[in-house]
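Sat 14:20. Reprocessing the chain from the morning session after the first attempt stalled halfway. Input below, unchanged.
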Amino acid sequence: MATVSNAKKLKEKLFKKPENLGKTMSETEIKKADKFCEDYKSFLDLSKTERASVTTAVELCKKMGFSEFSENVKYRSGDRVFQVNRGKSVIFAIIGESSIANGVSIIAAHIDSPRIDLKQNPLYEDGELAFFKTHYYGGIKKYQWTTIPLSLQGVIIKNDGSAVNIKIGEDKDDPVFVITDLLPHLSALQYKRPVKDLIKGEELNLLIGSRPFKDDKESELVKLNIMRIINEKYGIVDSDFRSAELEAVPAFKASDVGFDRSLIGAYGQDDRVCAYAALKATLDYKGIPNKTVITVLADKEEVGSDGNTGLNSSFLKYFVDSLAESMSKEREKSISSRAIFTNSKCLSADVGAGFDPGFPDVLDKMNAAFLNYGVAVMKYSGSGGKSGTNDASAEYIGEIRSLFEKNNIAWQTVELGKVDMGGGGTVAKYISFLNVDTIDIGVPVLSMHSPFEITAKNDIYMAYKAFSAFIGR
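Finished this time. Tokens:
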């Protein structure tokens, strides 16, 4: 009879490594993950911009009994509220049993994604073709955005102040738009460019039409005809583009990837995968949590979280101030947000770079996240010598680790690349700036910031369970 060696026993005792969830999850749990991700894919298809994400999230929360926050209401334990910030970020809260002075549980995700924005004066004609000029948003590989179908979404504010909502390219009968590229036969000079300039920013022009206005001999008749079509459909004129926010995003739908359908391919999974998991964990929570729960879906993360809809602004702080003032007990009124935040904990819900065997050299394999191994816990982000990072404390990591182990949540550690390879940031440093213990927790992603990012269904479901455990702790 074979015996287990002393060395093997000691290894089992001293070294515990994450395992592939395909081996450890029950068939029942895998089916739950698959079902969860069907709704997630629908959310992605409806939420390709930050404005659309807010609209979809608010519709979901209203169905679950959330009401719009009002400073004139006295809130009590169990109340569920939401507050929209300028249509591009949103906060959800469940009032807990404990005094808000004891701190709150914050989950912060972002709902903006890299994309192509229209310039303020976008419409022009060249070679008897009509185009929109653009300015890309966030960190992209520009060449990935050519020759794919794009939809146009956003809002136009007319001179009279009325809003025109735009969404073209998502329905099966809609036209789509495209950024053109050179044919290989004529690309000899293009190939000599550095890869980052293979397509230049000013070459990301959106092709929108080619038929001229027939009834005249004027110049730029294609541009005129396009503006005529837009005017007839939406009642706008060229100058209305100056007060518009229009975004070109991939027109294709979220899809299962692989023969086993274990993966999801879609645009905008950074960071709507974490935003959806956090939102669902909040909406699905039954009963009254111990501490008040605040889930933030923010804008502007991909460009540094600046602006009044990003988490580098004060909208979260102001909401907490207002919430404290509107609590039912008189004594709550004297509580400052400083005291609340000092006693609070936060999960910065953002994605991690998944290990890609095709490009192994950029990641330290011992500290990389693997698809199907659970949520990725990132102690620090930043670049080089941890520049621009939150860097969570050992004590807080220990707390989160214990929470995950107690609730059978598969987790792994992750860094954003090797030490001198690059790096990046999340909203974590802006939350921790408020004196809140904060750590990044998210889903590993392949092809991050591309028009078609890849995630694993088991990891997405594990993120939902992680956020649920954090809310219920």
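The longest helix spans residues 27-46.
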